[in-house]
Amino acid sequence: ILSTLLLGAIISCKKDDPVIPNEQEVITTLNYTLTNSNDTTDIITLSFVDLDGDGGNDPVITGGTLNANTIYNGSIELLNETETPAEDVTEEIQEEDEDHQFFFHSDSTILHVGYADVDGNGNPIGLSTLLSTFNTGSDTLTITLKHEPTKPNDGTLASAGGETDIEVSFPINVQ
What we know:
mainly beta, seven-stranded antiparallel β-sheet
């Protein structure tokens, strides 16, 4: 009788509503705006635009030139321009901050990106950053947005896990 009651309890607790997974975001545009902390008129926007998604036309990637030995306040804007009006995906990332994290990688030591924002658990997000430049030279800055990464992690893609929502490499000149 006990096993019959237990089975009945398990069956009666079963929910008929489907679980809707948190789907990856459609991102056609990434703008990374960098404002010189010493001169707020010095603004550089790195941008990625791929309106037709994977395949089709190549994305348009615009890099930038930064000043050496300078700190820039960075902010990321994400858009889905397949919708009219364009959907601001940045708002969704902010709302689901515990399920997202940006990762920043450069090919050299002439720049470094640090996080300036955290999620509800105190883990980094990356919508707001501090980018520091050092020596002059050329570099590539790769920005990767992970969906449902392991948090906390060591700040590298190797420890992050999760799914990649977007990954873009920007050419950078530091002078």
